[in-house]
């Protein structure tokens, strides 16, 4: 007789809490989207991503209509993306250009959902979900136990923090030996940004293959541009002092007098060497 589901779920949550990091090839598929990357994660929030495939028809349409995408999927392939828990470095080796962003920015393919290298939901496995034993299976040659998940409620408040569950249901295939989630298939919730894009019957599948458990080399999450690298630093603009971080003088009074007002957010990209702002 196998391990009872409740005990198995507690073991999975405990294994996640004890996991210092992992390296794996992650593939995200759904509604015409296919994104593949080698991801390396280390606690508490460090992540390195190298995309090898990035086919996203929604992003492609957005780029064709608005030309507002920072990078196309084709451009992301071959770039090095490193998040050290505070800053993100994006390096294009072909052009030898690096961009530093003041937050996590790994160009997630799923609107409103962090999916790249993200398995933090396991922390909530025994508290936030109703669980169902879905049998056994095999993923990438590994024996897996299948568990069905359904959020107990879509939103949960804990006074100073809140957690939302943007799915209706999911099925997770856990490696029977390591308890790592090898495959995650889920249907977005009605209120999620992803729902209108894939429809009521749509499903997203995330698979992890060639998994190596353990923290990657710390150097993986460090990026030091060379003297030849052209570096751009993105900085958030303060609404109270929006020109304070710009490398050139700018008066916003004429804009205010003309009836324009500041929006809530924005960034400035500054060329580190010549002081130009964009």
Q: What's the helical proportion of residues?
A: 10-25%
Q: Beta-strand level of the residues, as a percent range?
A: 35-45%
Query: Can you tell me the CATH superfamily of the largest domain?
Result: Lipoprotein localisation LolA/LolB/LppX
- Number of discrete domains: 2
Compute the average pLDDT.
Answer: 88
End-to-end C-alpha gap = 63 Å
Q: What is the structural class?
A: mainly beta
Unreliable parts = none
Strand order, biggest sheet? 7-8-11-12-13-1-2-3-4-5-6-14-15
What is the structure about, briefly put?
By secondary structure, the protein is mainly beta. The protein has five helices and 15 strands.
Structural features, described:
The protein contains 5 helices and 15 strands. The chain has 278 residues and is mainly beta. The protein has 2 domains: 215 residues, Clam (outer membrane lipoprotein receptor (LolB), chain A), CATH 2.50.20; 43 residues, no CATH class. The strands form 2 sheets. It has a 13-stranded mixed sheet with strand order 7-8-11-12-13-1-2-3-4-5-6-14-15. A two-stranded antiparallel ribbon has the order 9-10. The protein is globular and about 70 Å long. The model has no long low-confidence stretch (mean pLDDT 88).
Element layout with pairings:
Blueprint: H1 5-18, E1 21-30, E2 33-42, E3 46-55, H2 57-66, H3 73-76, E4 80-83, E5 88-92, E6 97-101, E7 129-139, E8 142-151, E9 155-158, E10 161-164, E11 167-175, E12 181-188, H4 195-198, E13 204-213, E14 230-236, H5 253-257, E15 267-271
Parallel strand pairs: 6-14
Antiparallel strand pairs: 1-2, 1-13, 2-3, 3-4, 4-5, 5-6, 7-8, 8-11, 9-10, 11-12, 12-13, 14-15
């Amino acid at each position: 007789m196998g391990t009872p589901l409740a005990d198995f779920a507690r073991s999975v949550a405990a294994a996640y809490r004890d996991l210092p990091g992992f390296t794996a090839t992650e593939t995200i598929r759904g509604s015409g989207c296919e994104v593949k990357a080698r991801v390396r994660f280390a606690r508490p929030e460090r992540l390195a991503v190298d995309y090898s495939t990035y086919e996203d028809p929604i992003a492609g349409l957005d780029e064709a209509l608005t030309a507002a995408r920072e990078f196309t999927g084709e451009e992301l392939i071959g770039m090095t993306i490193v998040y050290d828990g505070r800053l993100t470095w994006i390096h294009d080796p072909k052009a030898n250009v690096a961009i530093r962003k003041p937050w996590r920015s790994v160009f997630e393919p799923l609107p409103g959902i962090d999916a790249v290298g993200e398995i933090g939901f396991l922390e909530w496995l025994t508290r936030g979900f109703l669980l169902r034993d879905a049998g056994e299976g095999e993923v990438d040659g590994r024996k897996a136990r299948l568990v069905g998940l359904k959020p107990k409620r879509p939103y949960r408040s804990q006074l100073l923090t809140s957690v939302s569950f943007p799915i209706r249901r999911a099925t997770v295939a856990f490696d029977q030996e390591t308890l790592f989630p090898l495959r995650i298939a889920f249907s977005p919730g009605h209120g999620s940004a992803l729902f209108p894009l894939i429809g009521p019957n749509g499903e997203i599948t995330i698979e992890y293959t060639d998994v190596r458990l353990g923290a990657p080399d710390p150097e993986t999450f460090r990026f030091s541009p060379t003297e030849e690298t052209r570096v751009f630093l993105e900085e958030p603009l303060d609404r109270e002092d929006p020109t304070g971080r710009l490398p050139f003088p700018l008066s916003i009074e004429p804009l205010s007098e003309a009836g324009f007002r500041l929006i809530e957010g924005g960034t400035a990209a500054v060329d580190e060497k010549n002081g130009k702002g964009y």
